[in-house]
Design brief:
Number of helices: 13
Number of strands: 5
Strand content: 5-15%
Shape: elongated
Distance between the termini: 42 Å
Strand order of the largest sheet: 3-2-1-4-5
Largest sheet: 5 strands, mixed
Helix content: 55-70%
Radius of gyration: 23 Å
Length: about 300
């Protein structure tokens, strides 16, 4: 039996857009619209859709590599019963994700964006990102605020805590940068200078208090305080360049769907299937960012003419 492009688009929409398993996708189409289809056909249609995205992925990869600012992140995904890693590079207009067996440089290189990137990359403090010296770095303030809050929560009630002062200073700096970017009014140099001193002083006190490093927890807190001092310029780059976001929340949103898929339908059975799923998610996420509906984009893909972002 042959199926038209709208049926193929509906299959991929349910499987990759709504995260149903192959079996549940087949059942849904049979019960809702009376289309008899097997789980194997769902897999074949998904594979065919992903195979049609090579040109799209190359285009998006080039656009990301040429961007001024990108976000990068990674998250774990169970594939064939083992932990694999989904890597993401993105902007507000483009998303590229792929699955790899390793979390570090091997997986980042396989995605193919950072090795050729010369702009500002926003990421957490995962060390392999720092090996890409051609890029400038903005470390995620949201991540470090969570680390600082954990220290504050563990401190005795009513006592002063260096992590609280550091967190308050970062929040104040972020507020100043957002207000300046929103209004277009240059902020008084004294205000950020004061908050930067507060951050620096707090971090140095944290280094002193945790210097014994007698436990793993104290050693981790010592490393955090040292990072705030050593990477101050990378944490505060957003205060000098308003194009740069202070956090990497956009990347987390783009790869959150991968975790949702695992929650709804479990792990993927093969790495090939995982990579196909990631290719389609890259396509759907980018189309959504350009105001294209998921189903319309998938119909075009099924017709052999995938939607492509404009290259300016």
């Amino acid at each position: 039996m042959q199926y038209g492009p709208r049926v193929a688009a509906a299959v991929v929409y349910l499987y990759s857009g709504q995260f149903l398993s192959q079996e549940r996708t087949a059942t849904a189409l049979a019960e809702l619209v009376g289309i008899p289809i097997s789980a194997g056909t769902v897999g074949a249609m998904t594979a065919r859709a992903a195979a049609g995205l090579d040109g799209f992925r190359d285009t998006v990869r080039g656009l990301l590599a040429a961007a001024d600012v990108i976000g990068a992140d990674e998250t774990g995904l169970r594939v064939a019963g083992k932990l694999h890693w989904v890597h993401c590079a993105r902007t507000d207009k483009y998303t590229l994700i792929d699955c790899h067996a390793t979390r570090g440089s091997g997986g980042i290189d396989a995605l193919g964006v950072l090795p050729a990137f010369g702009g500002v990359v926003v990421h957490d403090a995962w060390a392999p990102y720092d090996s890409y010296t051609g890029a400038t770095h903005q470390l995620c303030v949201a991540h470090v605020l969570r680390e600082l809050q954990a220290i504050v929560d563990a401190a005795p009630t009513g006592t002063w805590c260096w992590a609280a002062q550091a967190g308050d200073a970062l929040v104040a700096l972020h507020r100043l940068a957002v207000d300046a970017a929103t209004t277009g009014v240059t902020i008084d140099e004294q205000a950020p200078a004061t908050q930067t001193r507060q951050l620096r002083h707090a971090a140095h006190i944290g280094i002193s208090q945790t210097s014994p490093r007698g436990t793993k927890l104290m050693a981790a807190r010592h490393a955090l305080a040292c990072r705030l001092v050593d990477r101050e310029a990378d944490y505060l780059r957003f205060t000098r360049d308003w194009r740069v976001p202070a956090d990497n929340n956009g990347s987390e949103r783009d790869i959150r769907m991968i975790k949702l898929r695992q929650k709804v339908s479990g792990c993927l059975r093969t790495l090939t299937g995982a990579r196909q799923f990631c290719a389609i998610r890259s396509y759907l996420s980018t189309a959504t960012k350009h105001g294209i509906s998921l189903f319309d984009a998938l119909v075009q893909l099924a017709e052999g003419r995938p939607w492509m972002p404009a290259i300016s």
